[in-house]
Write a structure and sequence with these properties.
The protein is about 40% helix and about 15% strand. It has about 425 residues and is an alpha/beta fold. The strands form three sheets. It has a seven-stranded parallel β-sheet with strand order 3-2-1-6-7-8-9, sandwiched between helices. A six-stranded parallel β-sheet has the order 12-11-10-13-14-15, sandwiched between helices. It has a two-stranded parallel sheet with strand order 4-5. Helix 10 (about 275-280) links the parallel strand 11 (about 265-270) and strand 12 (about 285-290). Helix 2 (about 85-100) crosses helix 3, helix 3 (about 110-120) packs across helix 5 and helix 12 crosses helix 15 (about 380-400). It starts with a strand and ends in a 6-residue tail after the last helix. About 50% of the residues are buried.
Length: about 425
Amino acid sequence: MRILLWHGYLLGGTGSNVYTRALAREWSAAGHDVVVFCQEPHPERYDLRGATVIRPDIGGVLPVFVFDRYEGVEAKLLPELSQAERDRFVELNAAAVRAELPADVVFANHVLLGGPVAAAVGVPFAVKAHGSELEYSMRGNAELSAWGRAALTHARAVFVGSAHIRSVLEDVVGHVDRVYEVPPGVDIDAFHPQERSEALANLVAEARNDPPNPGNASERLPDAGNAARFGEFFATDAPTVLYFGKLLYNKGVHVLLDALRDVDARAVVVGFGEYRTELERMAPPRTLFTGPLEHRHLAHLLPLADVTVVPSIFPEAFGMVAAEAAAAGSPPLVARHSGLAEVAEGLEAEYPPEQAHLASFATGDAGELATKLDELLSLDDAERARVSAAARRAAVAHWSWTSVAERLLEPLQIQ
């Protein structure tokens, strides 16, 4: 198939960015002709297996759901855009996509603005709802909800990553036909268990290749000096807890830091966001902040973590972070709600019965999180190996990108 894959943002860092990159790679590797439309300024940094990347001219204004800074454009919250700004964004992107026709299908990310962009192209299209647009921009906004509903009416398929997001879509947009539930995936070849010495050597080597970031001036680059800091931090084999993701209040990192005050463990906090300064202020001793890291780092950092915590206090479409941790053999401990609860269920199905309760904790409950961290970190070597292997089995069975990419195309085959 010739697939025009539209994504309004970058190819690294956040969940929908990673999702787009993975689909481009998997579909291209399977022999499809893939063109990616995004705002990534450095696509050469990513393995897309030959997919073409086009950066549409969007007129300088980028609609976002959570405010971030972007290179070369003005980020503006979607509800704050005028109708004229929305229409211009849609038409500029749709024109860029139409210039690459003919195609068998347009696959667009986000109900807004992906749905209107894809609908304006004039060929069969599908839309992937990621949740961020629904929760942060569309919920409670009747105008945006109606716009999203109208765009999805003619979609050949609407994909959701979990039963939770299916219900959110119904709640925010109203009933939509042809909805398919396909979870996001994880690169089970890139994320895999490693021996500690190998993982550390690889992590330090990747950090040495980081671009310069003097004074940590760019929040989107890894912190300066990470290579030396990793070497010093992991010089001893102490119990280690990892968080990676956005540093926003809704991600619940403060819950983890609160729990760690009662746990004999050190922590690594990976990510960028407006809440970082406050998190650094409240962090207990032995907490290392790294700035954002890419998959090339995380593939080696995860095997060094005894537990990876996903403490979000806000609904999540899926737990991609947890799936990546599981694939690397770092048992995830997730807040039990929304899409994360479905990840927990996948883990529990594989865990030894006596450890199944260690896949999740009550949302926002630092006390329960501390108790379960203590229990996970107190497992003997044999028990820990069994839990780690079970987490890996869950990732391979449920969340490999190859199977996800194939499932997404099934409703879109040429008729």
